Amino acid sequence: MSEKSNMSRRSFLKATGGTASAVAITGTAAGQETTTAQQEGGKGGTLNLINATMSTLDPIKATDTASGVVIQQIFDALMNYPDGEIEVENLLAESFETSDDFTTYTFNIKQGAQYHGDFGEVTAQDFVYSWERLAASDESRRAYFILSSIGIQHETDDEGNYQPGTLAVEAVDDYTLRMTLEEPFHATLPMLAYTSFAALPEGILGDIEGYDGEMEYEEFATSNPIGAGPFQFETWQSNDEAEVSRFDDYHGETPQLDAVNWRIIEDDNARYTYAMNRNADYFPIPTPFYDPNKVSVENTDDLGRDVGTYGPVRNGETLNYLGVATINAFYIGFNTAQVEKPARVAAAYAMNQQQVIEQIFKGRGEAAYHFTPPNIYPGGPDAYDQHAQQNYPYGYNETQLQQARQVMEEAGYGPNNQYQFTFTIYEGSDTWQQTGQLLRDQLASAHIQMNIETAPFSTLLQRGREGNLQAYSLGWIMDWPAPDNFLQLLNPPQTDTSQDAPISYVNWSGTEAAQQATSAYEQIQDNPAPTDEAEQARNESYVQIEEANWEDVVFLPVYHRTDERFWYDNVDIEKFGGAGTSRQMYDTTEME
After folding, report:
1. Which single residue of 144, 248, 508, 591 has CA 20 to 30 Å from 129?
2. CA separation for the pair 529, 151 (Å, rounded)
3. Does residue 530 have a cis peptide bond before it, meaning omega lies within 30 degrees of 0?
4. Prediction pTM value
5. Quick one: which of 506, 430, 523 has its CA closest to 472?
6. Which residues is 319 bridged to in the sheet?
7. Distance CA 344, CA 336 (A)
8. pLDDT tens digits for 419-439?
9. ω into 481 cis (within 30 of 0)
10. What phi and psi, each to the nearest 5 degrees, are found at residue 572?
11. How far does CA 179 lie from the centroid of its chain?
């Protein structure tokens, strides 16, 4: 960045006190007084949504979906997923070229793309800075994305730690960005669509070497995030609401909406009441209030998405309906350092995933027997089902309490010597509460006392990173649509909570199965290329990791969620696809 642009940004911050310059737009819920734009042309208005508790607005720090759905509107990356697809398209990249061996990528940056406020034009140097933050900042929780997953060339110290400033990312000129990989990687472009790789103005933060920062980190991460997305930040009040407003100078098509507002509500009853009072325009329906008999599927499109209606609901309306088998997995994780293997195996014998789907989740998903979702499992959904039906060792679609008791008795437990562990679920989830109660009641007959506790989502994550959970409920939604994105959570070295930023909290080590998983993941890393031969080697390793997980029951897969959304007729919105609602952008949404 030139000295001139440095001065421009500093002057802006001094003049505005470091706050966003746009005036906040008041939301108009469905049924309330319309704006002039709405009256004249059906344009404008505020899209009102419901969100969970957010943790940050920094793209390299966010790991929760609630933060991600807001960040997605504010920040743009080189690539993006178009609505409905899991194939990426250009966003801030105008075009790109690759070397013959797929190790060098050269991106032509779209000229004239503007940051919010007075932060000027997006340049290639901004990406160099932003990706250095991803690799080197203490705030980053996704450094492995760029250093090991994509594997951009870099240097390390004697302990294997990244040497700041050595990332092989170069601004050839203002609009040409070049990066060099250690070796070809099959999911390079899909990964670059993740918001961790989004563009920030160079030098805006001082959390990496060579930069003093133009604003304090806390300000950026909570009250003044600056990106180049279709909407600019307005407000975030913790546990209350968040809002973004239309960015008129957006490099793509200017959004039709005036603003997008998220009301932050954790409680299922409050969420449903908020939607039924027509305060939300586009929303999920919590499972306790969901009736599968009210779904009328009118057609299933070529991407497998169910489209139709739902209702009538409590307020008498019949809603629009969309159901999509998105790429996700929800599971019970066991800290193997704190929960003995016999208890984990007994839990697997006790769990009847199909029963949970039907009785608790009301059919809103598929029973999970692998951590890899069916739509990206090697060979697809049919291969997923076949492998599970033929090989799952703990009862496919059945509860096997006799085997659970036998395992515990062989380990020395009985009626007068019960094993105990605590299962922690995140607050506000009635379905996980019911799942935990069902499992607890089943395990009681297998000499296990399973205690259930709840914790705020952010607290659960923090305790997990510190190794202070025994068993916990979480889900994983794709960062990129490939099995390695999921199975990295079962790569034993990345599960060690004594290390910085473990990707899961299970401390899996010291067993034959853990070594099998480690070796299989190493084979994945040794065969990253976009070739048929490398893909075959990866596919074999994916299955080996799944089977190693079955052996030690580190993750107990529970279900793959069907994402559903409901909306009133005042909303005209594109259908999301396999990448899920967290990748959905609202720049083409219209309000009547």
Report:
1. 248
2. 12
3. no
4. 0.84
5. 506
6. 310
7. 9
8. 999 999 988 788 999 999 999
9. no
10. -115, 105
11. 25
